[in-house]
Amino acid sequence: MTYNIDNIKMDLQTVGFSESPALLQQVESELRRVMHFRKDIVAADVYLREEGSNPENNKQVRWRLGIPGRDLFAEGTGSSWAAGLRDASEKLKRQFVD
Known about the structure:
Radius of gyration: 13 Å
Distance between the termini: 31 Å
Strand content: 35-45%
Helix content: 25-40%
Shape: globular
Number of helices: 2
Largest sheet: 5 strands, mixed
Order of helices and strands: EEHEEEH
């Protein structure tokens, strides 16, 4: 599903399940946190999927940020969507200095 958050086009795709308002809020919150560190974001693609049967680390997040020049991409995992989103956003932030 496509959303517009502060003039950033965000595409949220969930594989094998439907997004909930709470999940959308978590994704939006993490995107806003990332926006504090990078002001030139024009798009964000977020792909969420559950992989494997281990509940400790089965939430997989793939995140692409559209910025001028080269897009940034990161993957994160966690036991919850919030943890997976945070893992991926931390990896994105590390790429901001490069």
